[in-house]
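[Solved] Which block belongs to which protein?

Original post:
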Amino acid sequence: MTQPENKTTLDNGIRILTHDMPYSRSVSMGVLVNVGARDELLIESGLSHFLEHMLFKGTKRRSAFQIAKEFDAMGGNTNAFTSMETTCCHAKVITSHTEAITDLLSDIFLNSAFDPEEVEKEKPVIIQEIGMVEENPEDYIHVLTGHCCWGDNPLGSSVLGTRENILGFNTDNVKDYFIRRYQPQQTVISIAGNIEHNHIMDIVGPAFESKGRGAGFPDRIAPEVKSGVNVYEKDLEQVHICVSLKGLPITDKSVMPFLC
C-alpha cells in the first residue's frame, strides 16, 4: 500500500506536501510562509498582517473583485491568518475545482500587485480591527501580557501593529517586505483531499518554480522572559487577569514522551 502523504521540494526550496484522502469529495489547500509578527522591525510592526490582507486585493491578472468572484463561483470557502511566526492563505473546494483553486492561490501568492489605491483602502479596515481588539478586554489582555513578558522584542507587539505604522505603510513598504521575507525556502504548500501527488505536482510545480530563491533569512533569537505587572484600567464591570509563566519548549526531553 502506498503512503497517503508525499513531499516534494522544488529547486527553489518550496516544499509541497500532499495527503491523499480517496474517500473525500473536497480539497483543502494552504500556502504557509514561516514569517510573522516576530520577524518585523519596530517600524514594520503590523506589516505581515497588512500584507496578508493585500494578497486578496488584486494581482497582475485579476482585480480584487475578480478574485472574490472566482472564489464565490467555486462555492468553497477561503480565508487567511497571520500569527507571530506564520502567514497563511487557505481554501477548501470540491474536488472538481482543484486546478482552479490551485491557479487562484498561486496567482495571489506570486503575482499580487499591491496597488497603491488598494493599500489606502485597507488602512481603515485594519485600524478598525485594532480598535475592536482594544474594546474587547478578553482579547486585549493578551496583547498587554505579551508586552509585559517580551518587552520591546517583536514578540511583545500586537500582530495587528500600531495605528501610526498602519497609516505610514505604502506600496513600496509592502513590496520590499514581501521580497525580503516571503522567500521560497520559508514556504510550504499543503494540499489534502481526493488527489494524486504527481497530478498536483504537474499543476502546482510549474507555477511556484518560477519564484527565485531568496537571499536567506536571519536566525530567530529567543528573548529573555521578563517579569512584571501590567495594569490597564478601564471603566468596566469586569476584571480580566492573565498570568504568564515560563514553560518547557516542545523539544524538551521531558516533554517528548507525552507527545509520542
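(Second protein starts here: sequence line, then its C-alpha cells.)
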Amino acid sequence: MAAYSLTQREQDVTRLVLQGNSTAEIAERLVVSADTVQQHLKSVFDKTGVHSRRDLVGKVFFNHYEPHVRDNERRAIAGRPLHSGGLDRRTPA
C-alpha cells in the first residue's frame, strides 16, 4: 500500500476492505463515521486508479501477491526454498 502513497488511515481502511469488511464495520472498528470511511475510500480509489472495492482487491492481489505465489510455485518445482516471510515451508517452524 505504501507504493500508492496512502496515508496511515487510508492503509487501515484498505486493509479492512481487503478483509471483506463493510463500510459500517470499518467505521465501527476505526471509531469514525461511515461518511469518513467513504471519503477515505474515495481517496484510496483515486490514488490506486480503481473505481470499486472489487477493483481494489483485484489490483492489490494481482499486482502484489500473485507474483509471489507464482514465484513460490517455480521455486517448489525447482526444489528451492520458498519465500514465506523468512521461513522455509519445507522445514518445520
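Accepted answer:
You had them paired correctly. Confirming on the second one: Helices lie at 8-18, 23-30, 34-48, 53-78.
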